[in-house]
Amino acid sequence: MSNKGDILNKLTQQGYRITPQRIMILEAVEDAENHISAEEIYIFVCARYPNVNISTVYRTLELLKELELVTETDFGDGRVRYHSIKKGHHHHLVCQKCGGIIDVDESVFAPLRESLSGKYGFEADIHHLAIFGTCKKCK
Fold first, then answer.
1. What is the CATH number of domain 90-138?
2. pLDDT tens across 11-46, in order?
3. CB 6 within 8 A of CB 70
């Protein structure tokens, strides 16, 4: 079954209606090559369904986030971006000078998670981080 099919099944099992707007919002997130903002999703949906409201996009994204079907990341540019959980966990290094973004594998943070657990008894929810700094090119 496709990612979209899996998510639609989860929504149905949780008692949520499968509306055309939710399907299009889901398609926008699933089809995006990179992280996508609510505004970009709104433009995608409006092209096919002009009567959609931006609040519908935000409510649907919030629902998908609550159901742990999408992640939300702030890259520091004033817009939160979304990513399908089916595409895996990864993190980002964001250069504050050039705006470049470097994807980082989740395994890099395993020692941090273990250290926080062992030293502080704290179970960190490290799934999708943006860490700000300066890239090698801009140093």
1. 3.30.1490.190
2. 888 888 888 888 899 889 988 888 899 999 999 999
3. no
